Each structure stands twice: as C-alpha cells, then as structure tokens.
Amino acid sequence: MKREQWGSRAGFILAAVGSAIGLGNIWRFPYMAYENGGGAFFIPYLFAMLTAGIPFMIMEFGMGHKYRGSAPKTLSKINAKYEWLGWFQVMIAAVIAVYYVAVIGWAISYLSMSFTQSWGTDTNAYFFNEYLQLGDNSPTKLGSIQWHIAIPMVIAWAITFVAIFGGVKAGIERASKIMMPLLFIMVLALIGRMVFLPGALDGLNYLFQPDFSKTMDPKVWSAAYGQIFFTLSVGFAIMLAYSSYLPEKSDINNNAVMTVLINCGFSIVAGILIFSILGYMAQEQGKELTEVVSAGVGLAFVTIPAAINLLPAPYILGPLFFFALVVAGLSSHISILEAVTSALIDKLNWSRKKAASIVCGIGLVISMAFATNGGLLLLDLVDYFMNNIALLASCLIELLIMGWLVKISDIRSYVNKISEFSIGVWFEICIRFVSPVLLAIIIGTNIVNTVNDGYGGYATSDLLMLGWGLVAAMLFVGIIINKSSKEA
Questions:
Q1: Quick one: pLDDT at residue 151?
Q2: Burial of 39 (0-12, 13-18, 19+ CB in 10 A)
Q3: N or C, fewer C-beta in 10 Å, the chain?
Q4: Residues 231-241: b if buried by 16+ CB within 10 A, e if exposed
Q5: Dihedral sign computed on CA atoms, order 310, 311, 316, 319
Q6: CA separation for the pair 259, 15 (Å, rounded)
Q7: What are the backbone angles phi and psi of residue 292, rounded to the nearest 5°?
Q8: Cβ atoms of 145 and 372 closer than 8 Å
C-alpha cells in the first residue's frame, strides 16, 4: 500500500505548525513568561529552543521521513525492541485527545456566548458554578453528564473526524490551510485593537521587563525547557506520523527550523495579546496586574471573558478571540488523533476510513467523562500526569535511544543529504548531552515533588489510580504489544 503524501510543502508546514500551536500557546506561554522573570525568560526560552526544540524537531522529522511510518512502526524499524515506546507515545496522544476535546468544547460554548456576553459580570462564579457545575465531586465521583458541555464536544469530534477521514491531502492539509492563516489573521486583528487600550502598555512592560536575577534560578530554566517540549508536539507520536507523509525530496532541516520558529514566534505574539488585555483590565479595575492574572484554564475562561465585558465592541472582539481558541484547539486535536489513527493503519492494515471511524467513535464515548460535574477535576489530574510525567519521560527515553543506542550520526547525515543547509555536530551534542541532562533533572524534580507533596490536593487513591496507575498501565500495554509483535 503506497503511503499517502502531503500535496505541498506549505501544506505540511501549516499542518505541523497547526499541531504545535494549540491552546497552550495562547494561555500557557504568557503565564510562564510572567511567572519566570518576564523579558528575562526569553533568554532560557531561546536557549531551550536552539538546544532542544530545533534538534528534537529535526530528529523526529528525519526519523519519520527515513523510516516512513507512524511512531510504533518507525521505532520498530530502528530496532524491533523499541516498538513499545512508539505505542506508549500513541497512548499518550490518545489520552490527551480525549480530554483536550473538552477544552475545545468549552471554547465552542464560549464562542456562542461571546456574541451577547451571557456569562454575566462574575465570570469566575459563572465558569465554575454555572457552566461546569462543579459540585462536591472528585476525579472519581463524576456526577452526571452536562449536555451543554457534551454537545459542543460532539461538534469538535465531528470536525476532527471529517479531517482525519478525508486523509492527509484532502482532509488534514485542506483543514490546516484554512485554519492556520485564519488563526494568525484573527490574533493580529485582536492585537491591533488591544494594544491601543488604556493600560495595555503597562501590561506589555510587565511581560517584557527583564528580571535578570531570575536567569540564575534553575527553576526558570526547567520551566523554559518544559515549555518548549510542551508546545512543540514532540515526543508523542505526532511529528513522526506527519513527517512520514513527506515526499522523498523534502528539505527536512529547513522544514523543522521553520516549524519551531513559527510556533515560538506565535507564542510571543499571543503573549502580547494576553498581556495588553491584562494591563487594560488592571487599569479599569484599579488593581495591580498581579491580581488580575490567573493561570491556565482560568485565564482563557475567567479573565478573558471579564476583559471582553470591559471592551469597546465586545460583540466583535469576543467572538474573534474565542473563534481563535477553537481553531487553535481543533488543529492540534486533528494532529493528535492522526498520530493514533496512523499507528493503527500501519499495525493492523486497516483502511483509513475504518481506523478513523473506530478511533473517533471510541474517543467520543470516553471523552464524555470530561463533560460531567467532576470533569474539570479529572481533566486537571490526568493532564498533570500526561504532560509532566508521561510526555517528558517519553521524550527522555526517545533521546536516550536515538543518542546512545542508535547512531544519531546516521540521522544527521540522512537529513543533511536531502536538505538545503547542513547541520553540524552541535545537533548530536544537543541530542546526546544537553537535552537529556536537562530533561532528566526536570522529570526527577517532578516525580520527587509529586511523590512527596501529591498534586492539587487530590486524594492519594485518586493519584495512584488516575495518575501513576494510568502511566504504568500505558507502559504495560506498550510492552505487551511489543512482545506479541516479536512472537507474531
């Protein structure tokens, strides 16, 4: 069976960028910069981009292109005993896909509310009490399905399904070519309005003002590396699958550098947008900027709606913002599910239509757990373990395999042969030494802190079952599939 291919280089880059640019760029990056020394955060961030982001992206594009397969197939072609890592990565993607769709569902709901600002004046109480209806639930006692959350999630699944069902060229590439330019235009239009609001410049000063004392803090470096791995979609099967659809004559190095630069550039642009809004809010409410900002989900669904209430022409700017969030979320969701679908197509020889139907069908059913009263708590807990433990561990293992057990110089000479510009020995130094050492420190710290202090005040039984237990189960399944492949 001939492997599908991208129709154009631009189509591939837009799809790869679409995967990398997700909700994390819009709400996670500005907050990370704000917490870790403002303008000074850009020094470790740029260093992380050059020593981890670009080399990792070149490595994954090179692996996918050379071995022409999804993550499990690529790793088993390198050596049959590494196939389990590919399945572990595919399972990370599958788990992220089923809860990420909940956040896209919220964004779709908020898009419809943004025309009339029906979230009212107390956006915090509205989001947690009325919209999510968080009761005295825990991640294991979920309560009942909230249909006003479930229906937008079904819409998100339907759009993702159409893109994956259609295949690489007709589905994913076409969707990316519409979604990505649209996202950039919307964000630039919003910035064009927001930076002229009173107080906006105070917000930007806050974001970009460097606190150089922070550059000496190892936590800040750890946050920068964590953010790079988090935002680029490396290490969980996506980029291996996407690059396996590239035509034979593809400029790997150039494609990888462009993908990383566009993604990191977009993060900074999103920071300008978010902080000009926060500066304006601080001035309107007569508060310090530090009192207005809130991390994560709260920023997108509590702070931003509160800002939209204050804006001139909220019925135009509000929908623009939430439409941008929906588009960013969907483009990532499509890529995450493609990683899962392509693995099943390669392994079981299913047709794309069958694989897409089964993956999206099962995903839809499981994701309904996140449309319940306790959905946010379940999402928070599972997300923490997937991103801070499983994903980073998968990146570390992949680096150790490629840097120490396989000849990484083979990948380097392979990508140099087909690219316009060559990469030097720095690539191997980053893959073998710089990235693994920093990742090992980050993961070690995360594991020690989680074992000692737990996470988010959740019960130990919940952490053991939905956190550690889930990660262990995924490893176990990956190893079982690997064993059965060898015996087959």
A1: 97
A2: middle
A3: C
A4: bbbbbbbbbbb
A5: negative
A6: 9
A7: -90, -30
A8: yes
Examine the pLDDT at 31 and tell me if it is beyond 90.
no
Place of tokens 């690539």: 427
Which amino acid type is present at position 296? G
Positive or negative: CA dihedral 177, 109, 314, 284: negative
Q: Helix (H, G, I), strand (E, B), or coil: what is residue 425?
A: coil
Alpha helix stretches (DSSP H) within 195-313 = 200-208, 218-231, 238-243, 252-285, 289-292, 296-298, 304-310
Question: Does residue 96 contact residue 336 with C-beta atoms inside 8 Å?
Answer: yes
What is the rounded distance in angstroms from the CA atom of residue 111 to the CA atom of residue 288?
28
Beta-carbon contacts of 130 under 8 Å, excluding residues fewer than 6 positions away, are none
pLDDT value of residue 217: 83
Terminal-residue alpha carbon distance, the chain: 21
Count other C-beta atoms under 10 Å from residue 162's C-beta: 14
What dihedral angle (degrees, nearest 10) is formed by the CA atoms of 339, 64, 438, 450?
Answer: 20
* Range of lowest pLDDT (104-108, 314-318, 393-397): 314-318
Q: Using an 8 Å Cβ cutoff, are 59 and 408 in contact?
A: yes
* DSSP string for 90-110: HHHHHHHHHHHHHHHHHHHHH
CA 253 to chain centre: 22
The token duo for 217 is 């803090």
List the one residue out of 39, 356, 427, 348 whose CA is nearest residue 166. Answer: 356
- Backbone φ and ψ for 484, nearest 5 degrees, come out as -65, -30
Q: What would the two tokens of residue 23 be?
A: 């909700």
Residues 6+ apart with CB under 8 A from 24: 230, 231
pLDDT higher than 80, residue 168: yes
Distance (Å) of CA 27 to CA 81, 204, 259: 39, 15, 20
Q: Examine the pLDDT at 290 and tell me if it is beyond 80.
A: no
- Sequence-ordered alpha helix ranges (H) in 41-173: 42-48, 54-67, 71-78, 83-113, 123-125, 147-165
Q: Which of 65, 91, 61 is nearest to 340 (CA)?
A: 91
Residue range 359-387: average pLDDT?
A: 92
Dihedral through CA 268, CA 272, CA 277, CA 279, nearest 10? 110
Please state, in angstroms and as integers, the Cα–Cα distance from residue 317 to each residue in 194, 289, 301, 347, following that order: 9, 22, 15, 46
pLDDT value at 400 more than 90: yes
The answer to whether 8 and 185 have CB atoms below 8 angstroms apart is no
Cβ atoms of residues 419 and 253 within 8 Å: yes
> Is there a contact between 142 and 372 (Cβ–Cβ < 8 Å)?
yes
- Integer Cα distance of 72 and 342 in angstroms: 10
Going by the DSSP 8-state scheme, the letter that residue 145 receives in this structure is: B
Helix (H, G, I), strand (E, B) or coil at 121: coil
